[in-house]
Amino acid sequence: MNQPTQNHEVIVSGIHLDLTPSLKFYVNEKVGRLLRHEERIVRIRVELEFDGKNDVVHPFIAKGHVIIHGPDLNCSVASDECHKSVDLLVDKLDRMLRRRARLFKVKRKHPHAVELGVLLPKTA
């Protein structure tokens, strides 16, 4: 009944790109899908970058950093549209979170014996 509510922090920043309120809302709405899957997420940082000089075909780069209890998740995707790169980024982060949860479930349900290379002394 009394479940603690955690405040998840979503940070959206733009590099060589002006962020409009609608783009920020779009990113927050899409990232909300990730927050449903994993309750231990502390912070999600999304960086949207426009790099038209180096990559003409895929100038929009979206980078995602998920800070979670345990190893952090980092990934980046490139696309020809900003909204498309956000969608691809959220899909990739979602797959990473699902894979992480599946691996933890396998470890929890199938414990294995630990082999020690050293003989332990016997107690008298």
Brief synopsis:
The protein is α+β, with helices and mostly antiparallel strands and 124 residues long. The chain is built from two helices and four strands, in the order βαβββα.
Characterise the protein shown here.
Helix 1 packs parallel to helix 2 (82-109). The protein has a four-stranded mixed β-sheet with strand order 1-2-3-4, with helices on one face. It is elongated and about 75 Å long. It has one domain (9-105): 2-Layer Sandwich (Double Stranded RNA Binding Domain), CATH 3.30.160. With 124 residues, it is of the alpha+beta class. It has helices at residues 21-37, 82-109, and strands at 9-15, 41-50, 60-68, 73-79. The longest helix has 28 residues, at 82-109. The termini are far apart. It contains two helices and four strands.
